[in-house]
Amino acid sequence: MIIALRGILIGAAIGLAILYAQIKTGFIKLDEEAYYMDRAAVQITAWEVLFICLTTFVICMMVLLIPSYIVKKIQPVKAIHFR
Fold first, then answer.
1. What residues have CB less than 8 Å from 56, skipping those under 6 apart?
2. Contact yes or no for 24/44 (Cβ under 8 A)
3. Burial of 19 from C-beta contacts in 10 A (0-12 / 13-18 / 19+)
4. What angle in degrees, to the nearest 10, is found between the helix axes of 46-72 and 2-25?
5. pLDDT digits (tens, 9 = 90+) for 21-47
6. Which of 17, 23, 43, 62 lies at 20 to 30 Å from 37 by C-alpha?
7. What does the pLDDT read at residue 13?
8. Which of 61, 66, 49, 52 is nearest to 4 (CA)?
9. What is the signed CA dihedral for 27, 47, 63, 16, rounded to 10 degrees?
10. What are the backbone dihedrals phi and psi of residue 39, each rounded to the nearest 5 degrees, phi first?
């Protein structure tokens, strides 16, 4: 859980930094003839960032907890016993 939280927080921070840099500098350029704008337009919405982070955390926890719940049901004696 700690690794997942750390990864989500670091990923969100890097993503938000890139978006903020694009808003301030416009370093991602577009072909104005094809897109009718000279740089990529971005918008940071707090609830979308939180939703993505929470959804990612829930999926990570399910991936970690479901197998351990299944393994918990296996009795060691039956797992060791060979037929």
1. 4, 8
2. no
3. middle
4. 160
5. 999 999 999 998 898 899 999 999 999
6. 17
7. 97
8. 61
9. 20
10. -145, 160
